[in-house]
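tmp note - YqkK
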Amino acid sequence: MAKSKAKKLRSKLIREGNMNPEIKRSPFVFSDMRTRLSKTKKDHIYKQKHKNHQFHDGNDGSFYFAASDKCFSSLRCSKYNR
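out:
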């Protein structure tokens, strides 16, 4: 893997006896400062607020209607025969 230009410059400064810039870095550079919290009960509820919930009895209020030509063939024939 190739060295970056900045890393080459740092190694050159060290070779020449100058101060290593990595020493000046803050110790917080390498630490992860983000706080992580586990989700609360409210967070889980709000995540599911507007989604289609799964009910235990299977009745969630939605239905599926599949129409085919056989369903409407008698209606079309009676409509045109009048």
